[in-house]
Amino acid sequence: MRLVPWWAVVSAVCAPLLLVGGWAVAGLLHGPGYDPVTETISLLARRGAPDRWVMGAALMALGVCDIVTALGLRPAFLLGRIVLAAGGVTSVLVSLSPVPHQGASHLHGMTVVVGFSLLALWPCLAAVRRRSPPWALRPGPAALATASMLLGAAWFMLELRHHGAAGAVERLVTAAQAAWPLVVVLSCLRHAATGSARARPAEADGRTSR
């Protein structure tokens, strides 16, 4: 029996591809006036930006993928799945509340902060403490993932405040947050395959002993 349904595997694979592909295509369409090292992803989807729908659609699709993955990630602890789905909802809300052409948007900023926090916390909250869970759902790796993402989010806020490499740091953190559900899914698939491989020799030994 599969631990994760095929549609959740597809959504987990698509999430990082959509995010990275979205900012790559939107950056090309934006032209040389955009600096991906210092400027954030949100500026690619701001009101008045050329072809802003590309980044907006990518963020919305990313959120939908996170929601779908959360629904199918049955081996994970339920609270973690809920928080992952909530993080997906915030991605959709970010795409629906773009920053204005000039100035800042408190709604957009608050949604981004909430989304960063939820997507950083869900690995730890999804950890399973029963005997021998999939590797990525063990407390140690899950806690390390959460700590790394929280530190990355703090680093991003620091760079944003000091007008540093905020764009590069944001891409690093958001790519990690988009990729971790895929890491968990692949870990679950490997765990299931290993369990099946161990079960087959045991069944064969049982038949032989009879």
UniProtKB/TrEMBL annotation:
Q: Which organism is it from?
A: Kitasatospora camelliae
Q: Which Pfam families match?
A: DUF998
Cited InterPro entries: DUF998
Record-given protein name: DUF998 domain-containing protein
| Keywords assigned by UniProt, alphabetized | Membrane, Transmembrane, Transmembrane helix
Instruction: Spell out where the chain crosses the membrane.
Output: 53-71, 78-96, 108-128, 140-158, 178-197
